[in-house]
Amino acid sequence: MRLSYHKLKIPLISPFTTSFGTDVNKDVYVFTLEHNGITAYSESVTDENPFYGSEDNYTVIHIVQKYLAQIVKDLPEPQEFNKKTMFIKGNNMAKASMEMLLYDYHAKVKEKPLAEYMGKSRGYANVGISLGMDDINVTLKKIQDALNRGYKRIKVKIMKGKETQILGAVRDQFPDITLSADANSDYTEKDFQLIKKIDRYDLIYLEQPLYHDDIIYHSRLAKEISTPLCLDESITSPEKAQKAFEMEACSVINIKEGRLGGIGNSIKVMDIVKNFKGHVWIGGMLETGIGRSFNVSMASLSDIDYPGDTSPNDKYFTHDIVKNPFTMENGTIKPNMGYGIGVEISEEYLKKYTVEEGFIV
Ligand code: OSB
Ligand code: MG
């Protein structure tokens, strides 16, 4: 058993701006597990800064090296890995990067495509697009292009004070599209009057307007606005999802396996959402083809009812590190049918974008 990493820096086709900053590169750890002729992969959804959540690339590699690698070494089933790592508080993105590596490994051992290994797949994922903030004319053009390509939902990033300008311009030009907005926790409980203005844009939901770890104020806000609320950052465990629905803080959840500590917890959240008759979709963190393959498989599960942020690889990178990128047809993407995540790594581009590599255990 050998566990190793590549740290990559891959230029993004266009900068991605959210309320917390602008990314021009994808800085990512890719993990590789090799055993008995099987090679499994995963990536961490963290980047260089803890601005989306509290983890970053440096905390992930630290937690992996100091604690998780020893547990991964025994090749436990993912559920077993989750139990064995419960003593480590938080650090969900680090845990997810190893749990998902084990998912890929065990799906490959059992010679099953990941979607089949995880649950009931409908065979394809419905796809939406997440657009970072840009000059408004650039955004309008990107929306038109996305609609031409068949995307089923458009999500725009907003921030405090710019919501009316962005959403007003989008709705003027596209009165009928399925539209959502993501504030990435830019507002506070003092901004409810401002947030209420968003009701007039007829969004399918407003994503994470308030604090990254909040449920209580979102619950209060949900009672004052008519737009459904979707939580992303705040839902870091199945227990948080349960609490959010019990408090009616949201009716929609954006699942990211990384934020939830892996696929096992993500499936538990899907069950909770179903129980409360909420809606659920699979988010994205600008993943390479490796993380994207996990996301597309998840998004193809039949309990996922809204389109996800699971664009084809060419939205992000000129050259991905996989040789079999996803293609979108009529706003849908089919999960890979090879064993596990089913990606073929391009050694050429993996090497080209590697800034550091090493052996862990
Ligand atoms: O809030 O969903 C988010 C990217 C980085 C950090 C947070 C978010 C996002 C996205 C991108 O919205 C979705 C994608 O991968 O296309
Ligand atoms: Mg979000």
Describe this structure in words.
It is globular, with a radius of gyration of 19 Å. It has a seven-stranded parallel beta sheet with strand order 5-6-7-8-9-10-11. A four-stranded antiparallel beta sheet has the order 3-2-1-13. By secondary structure, the chain is α/β, with parallel strands linked by helices. The model has no long low-confidence stretch (mean pLDDT 98). The protein has helices at 57-72, 78-84, 92-109, 114-118, 136-149, 163-173, 192-196, 216-222, 238-246, 257-260, 263-275, 289-299, 347-353, and strands spanning 2-18, 21-35, 38-43, 125-126, 129-131, 154-157, 179-182, 205-207, 229-231, 252-255, 279-282, 332-333, 354-359. It has two domains: 2-111 and 344-359, Enolase-like, N-terminal domain (Enolase-like, domain 1), CATH 3.30.390.10; 116-333, Enolase-like C-terminal domain (TIM Barrel, Alpha-Beta Barrel), CATH 3.20.20. Helices cover 35% and strands 20% of the residues. It is built from 13 helices and 13 strands. It binds 2-succinylbenzoate and magnesium ion.
Index terms:
single chain, 361 residues, alpha/beta, Enolase-like, domain 1, TIM Barrel, 2 domains, seven-stranded parallel beta sheet, four-stranded antiparallel beta sheet, 13 helices, globular, binds 2-succinylbenzoate, binds magnesium ion
In brief:
By secondary structure, the protein is α/β, with parallel strands linked by helices.
How does the SSE layout of this entry go?
Elements: E1 2-18, E2 21-35, E3 38-43, H1 57-72, H2 78-84, H3 92-109, H4 114-118, E4 125-126, E5 129-131, H5 136-149, E6 154-157, H6 163-173, E7 179-182, H7 192-196, E8 205-207, H8 216-222, E9 229-231, H9 238-246, E10 252-255, H10 257-260, H11 263-275, E11 279-282, H12 289-299, E12 332-333, H13 347-353, E13 354-359
Parallel strand pairs: 5-6, 6-7, 7-8, 8-9, 9-10, 10-11
Antiparallel strand pairs: 1-2, 1-13, 2-3, 4-12
This protein binds 2-succinylbenzoate and magnesium ion.
Residues 182, 184, 207-208, 232, 254, 283 line the site of magnesium ion.
